[in-house]
Amino acid sequence: MSIEIKEKLVLLDSHAILHRAFHALPSFTSPSGEPTGALYGFTAFLLKTIRELKPDYLVACYDLPQPTFRHIAYEQYKAKRPKVDDVLIPQINRSRDILKVFNIPIYDSPGFEADDILGTIVESLKSQDSRLKTIIASGDLDTLQLVKDDNVVVYTLSKGIKETVIYDEKKVYERFGFGPELITDFKALKGDPSDNIIGVKGIGEKTAIELIKNFGTIENLYKILKNNPEKLKEARTKDRIIKLLEENEEEALFSKTLAEIRKDAPIKFSLEESKWRESFDVEKVKPLFNELGFKSLIDRLP
User: Fold this and answer.
1) Which of 26-30, 163-167, 192-196 has the lowest mean pLDDT?
2) β-strand partners of 29
3) What angle do CA 292, 294, 298 make, to 5 degrees?
4) What is the pTM of this model?
5) Sign of CA dihedral 112, 113, 118, 122
6) How far apart are CA 167 and CA 147, in angstroms?
7) How many CB atoms lie within 10 A of CB 40?
8) Which of 104, 110, 251, 276 has the smallest count of CB within 10 Å of its CB?
9) 297 Rama sector, left if φ>0, alpha if ψ -120 to 50, beta otherwise
C-alpha cells in the first residue's frame, strides 16, 4: 500500500510572527544602526519553517495600517492594545524586502486582517485538499478555527521564537475538549483581551469550555436557555452563569462575529505563483543579510 505524499503550502502570518519576535528578542541593530530585533526573529523563524516543513509553496499574509471592517463595526476593537512601537513599524515594512529576495509572494487587502487573508486562501483551496497540505505558520492561536483534519494545520510558536507546536484537529480537541469549528463560540463566551473582544463578562476560560462542550454553538446554547433552561441545570451550570448568559446575549453573539475569520477578502490567490524554490537564489539573499547584520543566518539558508 503506497502512502500518498502531499505537496505542502505554508502560509506565513507575518504580523503575528513579527510581533512575537519583537517581544521575545532584544533590540538588535544593523551595522548602519537600523533596528532589527523583530526582523532577525522573523527571518530565523522563516528559515526554521523552510528547514522543518520543507514547503513546496510559500506565501506571506499581512495586516495593513488602515482600520478593518471590525473597527468599523466596533470602535473599541483592539482599543486596549498599546500603539505599535515606533521601532517595530520600520521592521514590518523591511520584512517585505526579505520575502522579496526569497521570492515569496505577499497578500494583503485594505479593511481586512492577515487572518482574513489566510482564511480566504484556505477557503479557495478547499477543492484541492486531497493533494495539498496547508500549514499556517503563526505567532499565536487566532487561526485555530481554520484547522481541518490533517489537511489544514497551524504551526505556531509556543515559547519565544524557538519552540513550536503543530495543531491539527486532534491537537485542538486535546487542548480545548472540542473541535476547531467551535473556537469562535469559545471566544464569544470568554472574550479575547488582546483584541478587546468583550465576550460575556464574568465567564472565564474554564466555564466557557464546559458550556461549549455541553451545548455546542452559542446559538444552540441560547436556544436551550430560552426553550429548555432545565438542561443547563442538569449540566450543573450555576445560577450566576445562567444570569450572566441571559444578560449578555447580544454581547456574546456580537463577539462571535468579531472573532470569526472572514473567507471572502478581495484577493486573487495563485498557487502556481507560490512556488518559491524554482527561482530562489541564495546569492540574491546574502547582500541583504549582510546589510542587516544577519551573517549568522547565512549558514542557515536553504
Assistant:
1) 192-196
2) 35
3) 130
4) 0.90
5) negative
6) 8
7) 22
8) 110
9) alpha
Rounded CA-CA distance 295/259 in Å is 40
User: Cell numbers 512601537 label which residue?
Assistant: 85
The beta strands (E) that lie in the chain are given as 7-13, 57-61, 106-107, 132-138, 152-159, 163-167
Output DSSP code: residue 83. Answer: P
C-alpha cell at 256: 462571535
* CATH 1.10.150.20, domain 180-259, yes or no: yes
Pick the CATH number of 7-176+262-298 from 3.40.1390.30, 3.40.50.620, 3.40.640.10, 3.40.50.1010: 3.40.50.1010
Q: What torsion, rounded to 10 degrees, do the Cα atoms 246, 248, 253, 258 define?
A: -160
Nearest to 135 by CA among 273, 8, 271, 20: 8
CA dist 18 and 138 (Å) reads 9
* Percent of the chain clearing pLDDT 70 (strictly above): 91
Closest residue by Cα to residue 114 from 255, 19, 4: 19
Task: Provide the residue ranges of all domains of the chain, joining segments of one domain with +.
Answer: 7-176+262-298, 180-259
146 CB-side CA count, 13 A: 30
* Alpha-carbon torsion, ordered 107, 109, 114, 116, to 10 deg: -110
